[in-house]
Amino acid sequence: MSDREYDAIVIGGGHNGLVNAAYLAKAGLRTLLLERRHLVGGAAITEELRPGFQFTTFSYALSLLRPNIIHELDLVRHGFMPLLMPSSFCPMENGDSLVMGQDRNENIKEIARHSPHDADAYDQYSHDMDMVVRAVKPLFDSVPPNLFDTSPDGLAELADLARHLRGIEPTVVHNLVRLLTGSAADFLDDYFESDVLKGYLASSGIIGTKVGPMSQGSGLVLLFHSMGEHDGHFGKWAFHKGGNGGFTQVLARAAEALGTEITLNAEVERVITTNGKATGVALTDGTELRADVVVSAADPRRTFTEFVDPRELPADLVDSLRRYRYQGTSSKVNFALDGLPRYPSLGDRSDMFRGFTNIGPTVEYLERAFDEAKYGWYSTRPFIDGAIQSTIDPDMAPPGKHVMSCFVHYTPYELKGSTWDAEREQMADNVQDTLESFFPGFGDLVLQREIVTPLDIETVAGLPEGNIFHGEFLAPQMYFFRPAPGWNQYRTPIDGYYQCGSGTHPGGCVSGGPGWLASKQILKDLAARSSQRT
Amino acid sequence: MVRRSPFHDRVAAANQTSLWSHWAGHLVVDKYEMSEKFEYTAIRNAVGMFDSSPLYKYRIVGPDAERFLGGVLARDIRTCGPGQAQYTIWCDDRGFVNEDGVVFRHGDDDFLLTAAEPNLAYFEHLVGSQRVVISEVTDDIGILAVQGPRSRAVLAALAPEADRLAYFEHTDAKIAGAPVTISRTGFTGDLGFEIVCAADDANAVWDAVAAAGEPHRIQPFGQTALLMARIEAGLLLIDVDFEASRFAENDEHRSTPLELGLGWMLKGIDDEARPFIGRAAIRRERDEGTSRWKMVGLVVDWEDYDRKFTAAGMVPPKDHTPVHEDMMVYDDDARRVGYATSFMYSPTVQRHIALARVRPELATPGTNVNLEFTINHSYVKVGAHVARTPFFAPDRKTSMPDDPVAEPADDETGDAS
Ligand SMILES: Cc1cc2nc3c(=O)[nH]c(=O)nc-3n(C[C@H](O)[C@H](O)[C@H](O)COP(=O)(O)OP(=O)(O)OC[C@H]3O[C@@H](n4cnc5c(N)ncnc54)[C@H](O)[C@@H]3O)c2cc1C
Q1: What SS3 string covers A307-345?
Q2: Which of A80, A103, A400 sits opposite B215 (nearest CB)?
Q3: Domain spans of chain A, in order of start
Q4: CA A505 to CA B55: how far, in whole Å?
Q5: How many other β-carbons are positioned within 10 Å of the β-carbon of residue B397?
Q6: C-beta of A500 in contact with ligand 1 (< 6 A)
Q7: Would you kindly state where each structural domain of chain B is located, as residue ranges?
Q8: Pairwise CA distance, residues B2 & B13, whole Å
Q9: B8-56+139-221 matches B294-387 in fold
Q10: Do the bridges between strand B141-147 and strand B218-220 make them parallel or antiparallel, or are there none, so unpaired?
Q11: At B417, is the pLDDT very low, low, confident or very high (cuts 50, 70, 90)?
């Protein structure tokens, strides 16, 4: 194996590594992808933990996938199949609920039941969000300028950005700033009065991040989660056939069809550098592999402090990375169920389970769940983003049975005075008790539960401190600064060594954006290098 | 008063939208659910059920039944043995298509033909002295289509015979004690079956299918979902993609089998033992190369589409609702070279697709053309390329349960890019 030569080696078979390797192979590079685990997918995998029951261990919904990737990598041919989630269900503590569906007029009536004022406010909100998303989309989908690059090219990139921003309508810019700097709760208060509607929408402002909906910064998270696009609709999410693991299997087939070689059970120990230039990688089993381009699709901590020696890096970068925040606060509790839960006030209805079930009935509920996390503990009554994927994908569970993925907030990585090994069962009990309080008899349906704490996310999937996005979505860690000031263009201080994981722009979620944009940068650099030579 | 299908009681109970339309004089559901896209997704991802009872149905029996159909239908009925079915067309003597339908052969002398429009007089006038009796059985029969990847599992639970049916085969069976015919046919381009039953047994059959389908997430689907699936399947629709020659106002509204891309149906057309209506004209058209059009698939260039809408300050629409109006097709020199008759955004193919007719010399897959859209109230041409139909043809559509799983083939998605 050691004498094999590659043009590019991608470290890590998460979805971004797969996307990146596929684009590099498509451009004609002999590309090798190395994955530490026995399967590709990283945080986007599906596992059959009980015969016939498919668990989405970590991520569970297709959120921000960039549509061009579907086309450019020909994913449909390899089985890409997003499944519409036709509803969102928000149970309330008084037994009532908000059920949002696909029909605008039905939604208006449903919202009006809670607040007539909010009915058209909802249309206004959706429109305003769409306008902001449209303004941000070109920035989301391009390599960000480097603030510290004073070369003519670098200045031209900044000028392009300034021109783009100048072209945006002032009211849209103002909304954008309100979102980027403010709290989700304040932003929503400007539109709505209904607690349940605000709770439902504010939930998108906390996912994966250690902020409460009333914290400054939750607006940014809300905006980020609205950047998704499904069949031409912004902010719409889908399930992939076979869960998110079904999706990463599609990516792996597409990458292989384009010529990527994938090696599993291959853990990279370090990147080999010669005179400040990357020349290959060394695996933990001692194997050395050569390539001119090495791409880390892992998190920034591994990329900069494990695969290479920090002594090889500029001091300000090392310092920035030390300050880069992970502080994961999310867990998963996944259930195998004997049947569908019942929501008493909806009788025998079950159609509302065909999308997200949002246990976060008010902004206050969410904020109180956050309070405990501030002081190093996990929520007694957590926010839960539930998804019974088997209601729309029969391949997820045996006939008549179901799987329910529950994403849980807040469960801080660092507990005060205890450990996750000691608290995991209690955390899952809190989740199950909360569900029981909304769905009497829920516990009787549980056949099995899988508990995934932040520590599990770190040790199994490899995401530092269990942060689901390879680092917090905080303004100082985004765009110009992701993962570090001056190193937001997928390059590293080591020539030929690149980064393409969720710790790079645009960030986490199953978007493929980092992997795709990094490939653009790498191919651009290679083209420049070869034109210099000739 | 508009008629009700034999399944009406069940259909009405399942229809949550109160949206109804009329099809062949029957009350039919547009969509059962608020989201037709959800119903459509069930067809591609799980299983759906559809009431296709309003089709006209003719029983054709008698010692000369095969000879009669052989003379009327353009596709060779002799190749359709008992227990088999055929998608077929019938033409006029100028070689223009009148209609299409599916014929099921139950015995040597016993056929059932389904059609979208009434045809009794047309057929009866062609009987002459042949020993054939044609009777309309439209109201006596219910047809329930069960379509989608889980359809085999649902049917097999009710009637094990269904498990071994090959594509376009049918078998007699019993469902809920009622005698039925189960065929491996449908209008979705997916794995699927149709159950033909006596009208009186319709409710019992519906209930049995619904119960057997429940664990597989079966979903009733309406017209809109069906019409989405059929475009992806490349299946033509009368009065949308073609018109019956006998009622057309002029030749611009008529099409030949070759023009409709149905040349594959004409196998054995040179066999002198089988003269059928239109044969001479169709052979002449073939030999002299006088086809005016060729029906093809078009796949819109997604980049060009996104670019043009975005430049116009719009979010590029991706609407799955089928558009059944002419859209003009141009070559790169802005000459009009055809028109699309059905258009949609396909959630499965993830592209805008169209069934269109273009000049025959442009019909090669991969040929670039331009499709005309209205953007901000102006006509704008967007790039597209000719693609093979069906746009979506999963292996399961034609495979048997124990067939090995096939690798994706290069030309299968119908997308030549
Ligand atoms: C619990 C949870 C729920 C989530 N829910 C959602 C959701 O519903 N929707 C959504 O869009 N996003 C969700 N996310 C976020 C999303 O899943 C991640 O942002 C995304 O999957 C990260 O992808 P990635 O390719 O950047 O990195 P990863 O998926 O982390 O991939 C990195 C890969 O590198 C490999 N690796 C690490 N070190 C080495 C080494 N030394 N040698 C070789 N390989 C190595 C790892 O094994 C891993 O496969 C969730 C995340 C978590 C954890």
Answers
A1: CCCHHHCCHHHHHHHHHCCCCCCEEEEEEEECCCCCCHH
A2: A400
A3: 6-44+66-81+242-325+472-533, 116-230, 330-410+412-452
A4: 56
A5: 18
A6: no
A7: 8-56+139-221, 294-387
A8: 18
A9: no
A10: unpaired
A11: very low
The torsion region of residue A275 among left (phi > 0), alpha (psi -120 to 50) and beta comes to left
Cβ-Cβ contacts under 8 Å for A118 (sequence gap 6 or more)? A111, A112, A191, A192, A193, A194, A197
- From B128, B117, B123, select the one nearest B72 (Cα to Cα): B123
Taking the C-alpha atoms of residue A1 and residue A69, their distance in angstroms, rounded to an integer, is: 31
Give chain A positions within 8 Å (CB) of B302.
67, 71
B393-416 tens-digit pLDDT? 999 999 998 887 665 554 433 333
Measured distance CA(A367)–CA(B128) in Å, rounded? 84
**What is the Cα gyration radius of chain A?**
23
ipTM above 0.90, yes or no: yes
Q: In the numeric block, which tokens belong to residue A342?
A: 């019942």
Reference B390, options B367, B361, B411; nearest CA is B411
Q: What spacing in Å lies between the alpha carbon of A18 and ligand 1's midpoint?
A: 11
Is the model's pLDDT at A1 over the cut of 90? no
A322-360 pLDDT tens trace: 999 999 999 999 999 999 999 999 999 999 999 999 999
Find the mean pLDDT for residues B232-253: 97
- Top residue of B315, B412, B413 to mutate, by most chain A CBs within 10 Å, is B315
CB A40 within 8 A of CB A264: yes
Interface residue A167 vs chain B (CB under 8 A)? no
Topology (CATH) of A6-44+66-81+242-325+472-533: FAD/NAD(P)-binding domain (3.50.50)
Q: What CA–CA distances, in Å, run from B119 to A174, B99, B113, B134, B136?
A: 65, 9, 10, 10, 9
At A385, give phi and psi (nearest 5°).
-105, 100
Mean pLDDT check: name the lowest of A211-215, A503-507, B81-85, B269-273: B269-273
> Residue A41's Cα: distance from chain center in Å?
13
CATH homologous superfamily of B8-56+139-221? Probable tRNA modification gtpase trme; domain 1 (3.30.1360.120)
Is A302 close to ligand 1, i.e. is its CB under 6 Å away? yes
Q: Which residues lie across from A135 on neighbouring strands?
A: none
**A-B Cβ pairs (cutoff 8 Å, strict):** 82
Q: How confident is the model at residue B368 (pLDDT cuts 50, 70, 90)?
A: very high
List pLDDT tens digits, range A135-148: 999 999 999 999 99
- Which two three-digit tokens encode residue B14? 């399942």
Strands B378-387 vs A330-337: parallel, antiparallel or unpaired: unpaired
B374 CA: distance to closest CA in chain A (Å) = 17
Ligand 1 centre and the CA of A298: distance in Å?
A: 8
A14 lines ligand 1 (CB under 6 A): yes
DSSP conformation class of A145: P
Alpha helix ranges (H) inside A313-438: 315-323, 363-374, 420-438
Tell me if chain B has a CB within 8 Å of the CB of A156: no
Helix A116-140 vs helix A195-202: crossing angle, to nearest 10: 10
Q: Is A388 in the pocket of ligand 1 (CB under 6 A)?
A: no
Q: Which CATH number fits domain B294-387: 1.20.1090.10, 3.40.50.300, 2.40.30.110, 2.30.40.10?
A: 2.40.30.110
The one-letter amino acid at A140: F
* Residue closest by Cα to atom 53 of ligand 1: A468
A258 contacts in B (CB within 8 Å)? none
Query: Are residues B389 and B296 in contact, defined by beta-carbon separation less than 8 angstroms?
Result: yes
